[in-house]
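note to self — DONT lose this again. spent like an hour looking for the file last time. sequence + predicted structure for the chain T wanted, 143 res
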Amino acid sequence: MRWRHPVFVCLILALTIAPAASEEAGVSVRDAWIRETPPGMTMMAGYMELRNNTSRPQVLVAAGSAVFESVMIHRTIVKDGMARMVHASQIELAPNASLIFAPGGYHLMLMNPKRALRAGDPVVINLEFRGGLALPVPFEVRK
């Protein structure tokens, strides 16, 4: 079969690739924030709502930011009346599901800020997912 209209061929190829691309970018974040802390604090926490808008699981494997020396995924666990933080090497997010990062639960542990952060300062934290998806997320610093 001979194609006479190269534009038509390009359109068909674009339509077959588009669903895969939208699936790949189907992770979203809402209400990302960091609590303002006094100068000299070496640990802070980041909170958000993480949403998987795809039809397959997404796995958060790492986070990082130029504003902090390190960023780790943590979860607060209460056992025998004692709260402690546990490092989570990854978090699997089910298809079409949300996970809230909030005080007393999952959070991003932000270690050694490179500058004092005040309410309104812009902070970007990059979320990394299995398969190579990297999502830069603006976090709002709040009082």
